[in-house]
Design brief:
By secondary structure, this protein is an alpha/beta fold. It folds into two domains: 2-357, Alpha-Beta Complex (Spore Coat Polysaccharide Biosynthesis Protein SpsA, Chain A), CATH 3.90.550; 364-459, 3 Solenoid (UDP N-Acetylglucosamine Acyltransferase, domain 1), CATH 2.160.10. 26% of the residues lie in helices and 25% in strands. It has 13 helices and 26 strands. The strands form eight sheets. An eight-stranded mixed β-sheet has the order 2-18-12-15-11-3-6-7, with helices on both faces. The chain has a four-stranded parallel β-sheet with strand order 21-22-24-26. The protein is globular, with a radius of gyration of 22 Å.
C-alpha cells in the first residue's frame, strides 16, 4: 500500500516538474512517515539552553563587520499567502507604513545598508508559485536592486498532500491546487541547491547568508551580527530572544543529551502531556526568531555529502485537504523547519538579540500595532518602538480576522496607541480618524455595529 502511495506521489511530482532533489527529499520523509515517525522530541532527551552570546555585549571591529557584510547575501522567505488573514496574494505586499509594503521596506533596508557600508548585499526571495509573479512585479520599481549574476528570487518546492488513511496523494477536483502543499521552510536548503542559486552565490564571491521571514521587518541587515558570525567560524547560527509569559508558542533551542548538539523544538514536536515544559519561559528562557545565519560553503558541502537530504527532523502536520472545510478529507503534510538545520552542523551556535529584531505580523492584531504610532519608521527603514513596551492588541476575531474586514473597520488608519498598554475590542466597531487609546483601553460589544467617532479617547 505505502509503496504504491510513494510511487504515485513521485509520479505526480515528476509530472508537475518538481526537481529530482526535492523528490528525493520527499521520498526520504515519506519512508519516515510510513515507519511511524512522529517527530516528537521528548523532554527527557534534552537539556534547556540557558546561555548564549548576546548582541548587546559584543565588541565587533567596524571594518571586520563591513567586510563580513560585503560577503553576505540576504535571503527572505516570501512564499506565504497570508491565508490565515484571508489573503490570496503574498503577505509581503500588504501596506505597512506610508503606503509602503513589507517588501518595499525590505528593499529599502537593503539599499540603505548598501549605501551605509559600501557593500553589494544582494536580496534574494524564496517565492512560492503563488507569490512569485506579484512579488517580482512589485520589485520592478527598484531597477538598481539586482546584483550582477544573481536572480532576485528562486522557487520553493511543492509536494502532494497525503490521505491520512493510506498515505496516497489526495485528489480534489473542486480545486486541484489544494492537492499540493509546501514542504515547510526547511525546503530552503533543497530549493537553494536545486535552483542553482546556492552555486551562483558562491561563484559571485558570497560566503554567508542572512535568512528571515518577509513578514518580520525587525530582521534588517546587521553588520555587527555578520562580523560576529564570520569571526566565530561557526557553520550556522540562530538568533534568539528572551522569552516572556507572552512567548509560549514559539519554538526554542535545546541541547540534545545524546550528542550535545543544539536542536530546535517546535510546538508540533512536543508531546501534549509535555506542553507545560515547552511553555515554561523559565525552563526554556529563549525562543527561536527564525532569523538564521549560515556559511554557504558548509551548507553546500553538507548537501553534496548527503545527496540533498540534510536529515532535518520530520514535522507531521495533520490537516484537511481544504483548510476552510473541516469535513473535507484528512490529510498529512510532510514538513521540516529550516531552523532545525542547527543540529546538522557541529559547532553551530546562537546569539541573543534585542526584541526589535523580532516583529512578525501573523494576525491583524500585529498589523494594527506596526501601523500605529507605537512604532516609528527610522532612516534605516526599520520600525523602532516609540514607547517603553509594545501595547497588547486584541481585536475580536469574529469581526477583524481577515485583512479585508480589518481595512473596512479602520478606514482612516490605526488609532493612536502611544499612550496605551492594551487595546481590546469586542463586537463590530468602525474607527474614525484621530481615535486614541490610553492605558488599558477596551471597547465592548454593543449588539449592533457601531462607530468610534473621530477624536475619541478610549480608556484613561
Amino acid at each position: 500500500m505505502s509503496d504504491a502511495g510513494l510511487r504515485q506521489a513521485q509520479e505526480k511530482m515528476t509530472s508537475a516538474g518538481v526537481t529530482p532533489a526535492a523528490i528525493e527529499v520527499f521520498s526520504h520523509y515519506y519512508r519516515e512517515l510510513e515507519a511511524g515517525a512522529t517527530g516528537l522530541i521528548l523532554e527527557d532527551t534534552i537539556d534547556p539552553l540557558l546561555d548564549a552570546a548576546r548582541l548587546d555585549a559584543l565588541d565587533v571591529d567596524p571594518e571586520a563587520a563591513r567586510e563580513a557584510l560585503s560577503r553576505t547575501a540576504v535571503l527572505k522567505l516570501n512564499g506565504g499567502l497570508g491565508t490565515s488573514m484571508g489573503m490570496d496574494k503574498a503577505k509581503s505586499l500588504l501596506p505597512v507604513r506610508d503606503g509602503r509594503s513589507f517588501l518595499d521596506l525590505i528593499v529599502e533596508q537593503v539599499l540603505h545598508a548598501r549605501e551605509e557600508h559600501g557593500v553589494r548585499l544582494p536580496l534574494v526571495l524564496m517565492n512560492s508559485f503563488r507569490t512569485q509573479a506579484d512579488s517580482l512585479a512589485a520589485l520592478e520599481r527598484y531597477p538598481d536592486l539586482a546584483v550582477d549574476g544573481l536572480p532576485l528570487d528562486f522557487l520553493q518546492n511543492q509536494e502532494p498532500k497525503l490521505l491520512a488513511e493510506d498515505l496516497t496523494p489526495v485528489t480534489w477536483p473542486a480545486d486541484p491546487t489544494l492537492e499540493w502543499c509546501p514542504p515547510g521552510h526547511g525546503d530552503l536548503y533543497t530549493a537553494l541547491l536545486a535552483s542553482g542559486v546556492l552555486q551562483q552565490l558562491l561563484d559571485a564571491g558570497f560566503r554567508y547568508a542572512s535568512v528571515s521571514n518577509s513578514d518580520n521587518l525587525g530582521a534588517a541587515p546587521d553588520a555587527r551580527i555578520a562580523g560576529w558570525f564570520a569571526a566565530s567560524g561557526a557553520p550556522y547560527a540562530a538568533e534568539l530572544c528572551r522569552r516572556t509569559a507572552a512567548d509560549r508558542k514559539g519554538g526554542h533551542l535545546a541541547v540534545r543529551k545524546a550528542d550535545g548538539r543544539l536542536i530546535l523544538r517546535d510546538t508540533a514536536q512536543t508531546a501534549p502531556e509535555e506542553m507545560h515544559h515547552f511553555t515554561d519561559e523559565h525552563r526554556h528562557p529563549f525562543f527561536h526568531t527564525n532569523n538564521l545565519w549560515f556559511d554557504l560553503e558548509q551548507i553546500a558541502a553538507a548537501l553534496e555529502a548527503r545527496g540533498a537530504v540534510l536529515g532535518l527532523p520530520l514535522i507531521r502536520n495533520e490537516k484537511t485537504v481544504d483548510p476552510t472545510d473541516s469535513s473535507s478529507p484528512a490529510v498529512l503534510q510532510i514538513e521540516t523547519a529550516m531552523g532545525a538545520a542547527i543540529e546538522v552542523f557541529e559547532g553551530a551556535t546562537a546569539i541573543v538579540v534585542g526584541r526589535e529584531r523580532f516583529l512578525p505580523v501573523k494576525t491583524t492584531n500585529d498589523l494594527l500595532l506596526v501601523r500605529s504610532d507605537a512604532y516609528e519608521l527610522t532612516d534605516a527603514r526599520t520600525l523602532h518602538l516609540a514607547v517603553e513596551a509594545a501595547p497588547l492588541v486584541d481585536l475580536d476575531p469574529k469581526v477583524y480576522k481577515t485583512v479585508q474586514a480589518f481595512e473596512a473597520h479602520f478606514p482612516d488608519g490605526a488609532p493612536s496607541l502611544r499612550g496605551a498598554t492594551s487595546l481590546t475590542v469586542r463586537g463590530e466597531w468602525t474607527f474614525e480618524d484621530g481615535v486614541a487609546a490610553v492605558g488599558a483601553a477596551r471597547v465592548d460589544a454593543d449588539g449592533a455595529p457601531g462607530t468610534i467617532s473621530a477624536g475619541t479617547v478610549l480608556g484613561g
